Structure formats: structure tokens, C-alpha cells
Amino acid sequence: MKSKNVDVKTPESELEAEDRGAEEERPRESDSNILDLSSDYPRDKHISIQRHLADLEKLADLREDERKPCPLCPEEKFKACYSHKLHRHLQNLHWKVSVEFEGYRMCICHLSCRPVKPNLAGDQTLSKMGAHYHCIICSATIVRRTDMIGHINRHVNKGETESRFSTVHAPKSSYNVVKESATDVQVLPNHSTPQKTDSYFNPKMKLNRQLIFCALAVLAGERKPIECLDAFGATGIMGLQWAKHLRSSVKVTINDCNENSVTMIKENCHLNKMKVKLNSREEDNGETVGHGEENSDTIEVTKMDANVVMHLRSFDFIHLDPFGTSVNYLDSAFRNVRNLGIVSLTSTDISSLYAKAQHVALRHYGCNIVRTEYYKELAARAVIAAVTRAAARCNKGIEVLLAVALEHFVLVVVRVLRGPTPADDSAKKVRYLIHCQWCEERVFQKEGNMVEENPYQQLPCDCHGSMPGKTAVLLGPLWSGALFNTGFLRRMLLEAVQYGLDEAQPLLKTLVSEAECTTPKHFSTHSPGDENKQEECGVYIRTPNTSAESYLVHAGKRKSEEVLRGTAKRQRAEHSAEHPPFYYNIHRHSIKGMNMPKLNKFLNYLSEAGYRVSRTHFDPMGVRTNAPLVQFKTVLMKYSTPTYVGAQAEGPVHLPGEIQVGEEVPAAAVIKVEEAELAEDDKSGVAAAMVTESYPTHCATE
In what ranges is there compositional bias, type Basic and acidic residues (predicted)? Predict the structure, then answer.
């Protein structure tokens, strides 16, 4: 077989006749038998993929004195002809409609490569339907040129390259060095495709890694040294950042079950001048020392299943970041984690958590969910409920420190509380949620085992009485407690400022204001002197400005019964101060034909009405408030302006009748107001007069 690479030398004279005979026969064979075996390209390519038109003409071996067939067309479609006609055929039919990618041209192919269904129209139509392109990356056959361009773009967006189809390991020269937070790691060109590479590295998860680092830095300030585990190392970027910045405060263990990933983790440790300590089974062979002796930090690298390494050893900090769901590793994580330790997990199965695959969520998390306006918070509470049940099976309770749900992942960070009493308290916070499908009002089911005759009475709305049939659905079980710990988030923000983590700082500020349920203008990043000693889980934990009077609780010391009783009393006393569950989307509840106020102004209006209010990171247009939905709509309607009255002055719009903000407004009254507005719209002749009468104008004052 003759190579199609441009750099291939011309064959010797005694082999020309044999090569020409082979080339005349092979174009009529199947495309799967005609491949390029050039050594400088990492995988085999079809003959329709060439760099230059001259390479395509070399396949035909154009000679003026002989008739030659087209190498990309069957004999039934294009008969053998002389060189001048074959040159025009290759240029106009194959080369001009080719698709270019990284210097290669994927020409259109008419061979019998692509299986075509039998057609009664005849052989001529069948040959026309057989035209297709061969993908240079995955060898797929695509019919349309536009589809081929989109197919290649999807490969590029996923970071897929031809190197992932090579059967041999790529040389070190093909590695890409990525730098993040002063840490260098080597990655393969296809590092962002977890199914096709051994060293998965996602640049979009940088924010996730920064949040986890801040949580670990806060724990390292409480007690040191702490043993931390990155159960799914991949490239080892996360564990390297821990060891490089926190130094002697942490003892880092990076684990991965893939041998190629473990090899790359060791190379990345050497790249960052770290010592590598092998696991207990390999310690007899000695230690591998990185380049340079100025850095004495040591990272332990293990090659085990994540469940095995968590069963064998105890850790203070465990991070789980598998591909997809992490429920398969929760039992092992809580089995040996130390008291007052931290377990963080990142779930990337957003299709099931965001209610796109509800049957998968029921199978993995044992939770019934539907697509709602607050689906991201619903996903976070479903994950925490699974974490709570796993911890309770090990006689351990949890305190949620952080719950973040963004576009690509759901991150949950919890503190472990050892003992059956905290386990019982945490298990009681897993409840079902009653969700109204008409107005999207929601409320957690009351605690108790007695069956209620009419569960619709728990909902604040009266949709069940005014609408036919069943109007609500039961979701869950979900976590009904708080999603944030304000003191822990403030210390995470201090760590983010100290280490210069710019991407995490805006999100942490939003989380602190959301945890306190206050507007951002009332938020202060600097804690006063009396807040230097934060109380969490019934114990006092030292912060960077802690006075000498505060003390430190060791990880292995069991809490006394008096402390536990004090914790329960404090939690009951501060239950009313927790942030309200869930949020409302201002666009979802907007009034048709009305201009909504700006979001920040609307937050001030709700705050002036006497409600707690804040923005939420789950939804950029979401409002977290303890106001019921009827009052939320009432305030929104009052400060909205009609779009069809050009001469009306800006200002609040008063509702008809005696309805005022702060009063309990029935849902039927809101419906009547909306029906009245629709009736006014139908009367085109007196619309302006009716609107002026229903909505008196006022001067807009600040």
C-alpha cells in the first residue's frame, strides 16, 4: 500500500509497476481496507483525507497515455478516463467540497463505505445516496457537508483530537502543560473528555477546585496537621494545590485506580518539585524523590479503588469527584472519617439531578423530583439527603457547611458529627416537599407519622379549592435544613482573599449574604471582634484573629452529653434565624403587560415590607425570601408599571380595592385583579381611561 503522506519518497523503479497495479485494484475495494499507515500521524486515515490536491492525484497516478479510474468513485459512477479529465473530476467533485481540519482535507467519497438501505429506485439512485465524508478523528461517515462541519466542531469543543485513537502511548512531547493557581500539570490533548482519556482535566471546574481548597484551608486552621484524601486524582491537580499552598498543615494522599493516571500524577509531582511517597504495598522499594531538595513536602500516591482506600484508612478531609454520581462511595467515606472532619463531594450527573432524567434520580438518590423554577436548589437538597442517610447508617450526623449548584456540577461540603444523637437529629431533617403545580408554591411536610386527611391544607395557596383535580405533587425525600454555615463561609472568604483566589471571592460573598438572607449592601467581609470566635456544632473553633480565651477541640475527642444538649437547644433557638428555604424567580411571576422593577429595587421593596430577602447563586434572577408567594406577587404588582400607557409617570401602582402590602392577600383576589386587567385590554376604545382610573399615577420619589 502506498502512503498518502506528502513527505514519502518516490518508490524505486523496479517497484513502480507493482505499486501501480495495487493502486488500480484497491480503489474498487471497501474503504475500510484502504487506510493510511504513515507513522507521523497517530492513527490510520481513509484515502479521502489528504493534505494537498497533488496527494489525491498521486493516488490516481495520472499518466497521459493510460486511462485511470477515480480512486474515490466506483466504476459504475465514473469510468476510467485520461489524465486531463480525471484531474478536473478530482478538483471539481472531490476537492472543492472538502472539509478542512488542521491542514487536512476530508474529501467527499463515493465508494461503498457507508451501508445504504436497499432502494427500489435503481442502482443509479443508490450510488448517489452513497456519497459521504470520513471523519479524521473518529472515522464516522457523514452524508452532508454541513453535518460534517458540525461534527468536527463538536469534537473541537470537547477537546477531542486524533491522539486519543492511537493504540500507543503519546510521547511526553505531546503533553500540554497547564498552569492553575501556581501549580503546573501535564495533560493530554484530549484531557477534557473523561470517557476517552486516562488523565481527565476540566478547566471549567476551576471554581469548584477553589471552593474545595478554601474549605480545606479553614479546616487546616482549626487543627494541624490533617490527613486529606483526593479519592479521584486524575492529573492530581487538586492534591498538588493542597500540598503546595498549605505545606506542612496537610498530609495529602492522591488516589486513582488507573495505572496511567497514577503515572501522570507522579510526573506532575516531580514537575512541581514534590516528593512522592508510595503506598504501603510499595514502600519497601523506596521513595521516589522529585527534582530539587529545597521543597520537603511529600505527597502519597496510591493505586486503589476509592472504596478500598477509604475503608483501610482514616482521614480528616475527604473529597469525592467521580465521573457522574458519588452515591456509590458515600458509605465508605463516612465509615472512617474522623469526628468533626469534612466530607466534600462533587456530583456531575446534572441530567438526573436537574430533573431531565427523573428515573435516574429515583434510582441513584431514591428521590422523586420534577422540573421546577427552583430545580437547582432541589438538586442540592436531594444530594444532601443521600449524604445524610449514608452518614446515619454509620451512626454519624452532618452539618451542611456549603451547597452550591451551578451549570456543570453540584458541590456539597458537610461536617461530620459522631454519635447516634446527631445522626437522629440529621435524619429528622429529611422530609418530603409538597409542591403546587399551578402556582409553584411549596412547603415541607410537617414532621410526624400521622396521616393527614387533607395534605393540601399545608400549602399556603388555595389552588386545590379553585382548580379541578389534583394540583400538588409530593417530592423527595429532601434535606429540609439550612444549606449554608455563615461563620464557615466568612472564613472561606478570608482564605480566598489570602491566597488570591479571584474567581471564588464573588461567589463566596453572594453565599454569605444568601446565608444571612440580607442584601449585598448590608454585607461586610470583615468580621467584628466578637465574631472572631465562631461557634459551630456546639464547639468553639479558632479563626485567624482568635483571642487566647478561645480553645480548640481535637478531632478524636468525643463530645459530652452536656455539649450535645446545648447544641440542640441552640439549634432550636436559632431555627427561626436560618435562611428561608427555596427562592422565587422574578421573571416567572411577572405580570403580563407590565414592566417589572429592577431586581435590586424589588429587593428593597420587599425588605421595606418587613420580609427577609436576598439574592441567590442558584438563579441570577432569583429572590430568596420568607414572604409567601401571594405577598411576593402583590409587591411585584404594586411596583410594576403598565407598558401600554406612554404618558403615565413612573412610580408604584396601587392595587384596586383595600389590598395593601403586608396583609394576607388570598390568591383568588390576585386572580380577580388579573382578570380585571384582561377585561380592560379588550375594551380598546376606553382602555386609556380605564387604566388611568384603575391605576392612579403618583410622583416617583426616591
Answer: 1-31
Q: What is the pLDDT of residues 23-80, one digit of tens each?
A: 444 433 333 333 333 334 444 678 888 888 888 888 877 666 778 888 888 888 888 8
CA distance 382 to 361: 9
Helix (H) or strand (E) run with residue 211 in it = helix 206-222
Return the domain boundaries, the chain.
Answer: 49-113+130-157, 177-279+296-436+473-487, 583-642
Q: Is 468 helix (H, G, I), strand (E, B) or coil?
A: coil
**What is the rounded CA–CA span in Å between residue 115 and residue 407?**
39
CATH number belonging to domain 583-642: 3.30.56.70
Q: Tell me the Cα Rg of the chain.
A: 33
- Cβ atoms of 58 and 9 closer than 8 Å: no
State whether residue 462 is helix, strand or coil: coil
With a CB cutoff of 8 Å and minimum separation 6, the contacts of 18 are none
Q: Which CATH superfamily is domain 177-279+296-436+473-487 in?
A: Vaccinia Virus protein VP39 (3.40.50.150)
Rounded to 5 degrees, φ, ψ at 231 are -70, -25
Q: Is 678 exposed, middle or buried (0-12, 13-18, 19+ CB in 10 A)?
A: exposed
Q: What is the pLDDT of residues 128-184, one digit of tens each?
A: 447 888 888 887 888 888 888 888 888 877 767 653 333 334 444 457 788 898 899
Q: First vs last Cα of the chain: how many Å apart? A: 83
- Following CA atoms 28, 29, 33, 36 in sequence, which dihedral angle do they give, to the nearest 10 degrees? 0
Biggest distance spanned by C-alpha atoms of the chain: 105
pTM (global) more than 0.70: no
Q: 143 with 99: CB under 8 angstroms?
A: no
DSSP secondary structure string for all residues of 118-165:
--TT-HHHHHHHT-BEE-TTT--EESSHHHHHHHHHHHHHTT--GGGG
Q: Please tell me the distance from the alpha carbon of residue 46 to that of residue 57, in angstroms, as a whole number.
A: 15
CB 60 within 8 A of CB 70: yes
Give the CA count within 13 Å in the CB-facing half-sphere of 672: 9
Contacts 24+ apart (CB under 8 A), 82-89: 86/60, 86/62, 87/57, 87/62
Alpha carbons 570 and 619: distance in angstroms, whole number: 31
Identify the CA nearest to 702 among candidates 605, 607, 625. 605
Percent helix / strand / coil, the chain, rounded to 5: 40, 20, 45
Q: What is the 3-state secondary structure (H, E, C) of 73-108?
A: CCCCCCCCECHHHHHHHHHHHHHCCCEEECCEEECC
Residues of the chain with pLDDT under 70: 1-44, 62-64, 114-129, 159, 161-174, 189-199, 279-296, 520-577, 644-702
At position 484, the amino acid (one-letter code) is F
Question: Which DSSP symbol is given to 446?
Answer: P
- For 479-498, the DSSP string reads E-S-S--HHHHHHHHHHHHH
